[in-house]
Amino acid sequence: MAELLTLYKLIILYMLDRVDFPLSNSQISDFMLNKEYTTYFKLQQALSELIDAGFIQEEPVRNRTLYNLTEDGASTIELFRKNISHAIRQDVNDYLTEKQYDLKSEVSVKSDYYRNTNQEYSVHCQVMEHTLPLIDLTVTVPSEEEAKTAADNWQKKNQEIYAQIMASLL
Questions:
Q1: E-strand spans in the chain?
Q2: Which of 29, 95, 107, 166 is the most exposed place for a label (fewest CB within 10 A)?
Q3: Burial (CB count within 10 angstroms: exposed 0-12, middle 13-18, buried 19+), residue 157
């Protein structure tokens, strides 16, 4: 059983090593569960143990969690990559190739909100390219309901908003 948990951890590290952006819990789960490599609970255990060991970092963003590979995680997968069968590595590579645009798009657009010192709400919106923001925008709104709406609309309309801002600036 411990060997299987180790394999799950290596698969997660391998996935994160193969992309230049973070993956969400749901993206990792989608792959692992659809391929029937493990159960949801074993996957969450593997993720938790990787975080505790310092091999991955979690980044909570509103209603999802994103995972990044740390330097220790990158060193570990480099050493133990051969412990993942060629077939599993191929499954990962195929999944990432097939869904790369959707995966990257899903995690590169970020929005969150919080109550600020004026007792209003700040809505923080970003579009990330690798680790750098293409746009980083914070707006203030009077209510939590408006903050939630603004954050949700950023997820849906970020390309249009970015294009309008750039057209106005340039």
A1: 23-24, 56-61, 64-69, 109-115, 121-129, 132-141
A2: 166
A3: exposed
